[in-house]
Amino acid sequence: MLTGKTALVTGSTSGIGLGIALALAQNGARVMLNGFGDVDGALAQVRRHDPKAVHDGADMSQPAQIEAMVRRCEAELGSCDILVNNAGIQHVAAIPDFPAERWDAIIAINLSSAFHALRAALPGMQRRNWGRVINVASVHGLVASANKSAYVAAKHGIIGLTKVAALENATTGITVNAICPGWVLTPLVQTQVDARAAADGVDIEEAKRRLLAEKQPSLQFTTPDQLAALAVFLCSPGADNIRGAAINVDGGWVAQ
Ligand code: NAD
Q1: Where residue 84 sits, what CATH number does that domain have?
Q2: Contact 141, 160 (CB under 8 A)
């Protein structure tokens, strides 16, 4: 379905981004990965579907590196047709205890990076009159939780940015949408599970159960595969007129 299309997925060496990159490659897209950590492992998985998949090590807190990565995607893959803004980090603390440096990093990586990537990639999409931008926001773009000030602010911001970019391109073949996952058991959330287990003095399974019971009525984690299936759908012709949407995949979290 995506044969002939190219995709840049930020933060795709792990978790949700890796799941989306794999699904786009399985559907025929040429893929550029980005992110830190197990780069070789991620590349090996994606290369089973796209043998020419490449990785760019841009730090998503650095605007010049983001622009250079988009230019490299256009030069080496031929275009940047699908942009998935997924890279993200978390820090959990009440506002008086929240380090200012963590606030700046979360706003840079979880929000400003999407603006810089969009700014670099949109002109090429507009020339070709086709593009798909998928911003991985969160239920925390729609509702808040205590102790996540920077994350909630960034995720609310990226949903606003999604709407503006969708409107600016509403009469074109470029759609811009946000996906809003609830709890997904990735390294980002495992840290919070571990912290909960330590705080409550319970084992990891019980900590997972408590986290889910608090927020996610299905009592099931959303999976990267489920989010990837939605991302593939958003790239399909069936989604041509979905514009500026924030789609929650959250086991009922924001229905409450
Ligand atoms: P993860 O920790 O598994 O993956 C994060 C990815 O971002 C990794 O590839 C990491 O290397 C990359 N990254 C981090 N800082 C970077 C930087 N400065 N430059 C480049 N890459 C960087 O986390 P995840 O849970 O898969 O999160 C992915 C996205 O999904 C994030 O935007 C997160 O906010 C969002 N999200 C996650 C959940 C969840 O429950 N896990 C829920 C809602 C939204």
Answers
A1: 3.40.50.720
A2: no
Would you call 105 a catalytic residue per the annotation? Answer: no
Average pLDDT over residues 158-167: 99
The structural domain count of the chain equals 2
**Closest residue by CA, ligand 1 atom 44:** 138
At residue 115, the pLDDT reads 99
100-107 and 149-168 are packed helices; what angle lies between their axes, rounded to 10 degrees?
Answer: 20
Q: Please list every protein residue whose CB sits less than 6 Å from any atom of ligand 1.
A: 11-17, 34-37, 59-61, 86-89, 109-110, 136, 138, 181, 183-184, 186-189
Would the pLDDT of 177 be above 90? Answer: yes
Cα 82 from Cα 177, distance rounded (Å):
12
Position 256 in a domain: no
pLDDT digits (tens, 9 = 90+) for 95-127: 999 999 999 999 999 999 999 999 999 999 999
Is the confidence at residue 86, as pLDDT, over 90? yes
Q: Would you say residue 1 lies in a domain? A: no
* CA 58 – ligand 1 centroid, Å: 14
> Quick check: pTM over 0.90?
yes
Mean pLDDT score of the chain: 98
197 and 204 Cβ atoms separated by less than 8 Å: yes
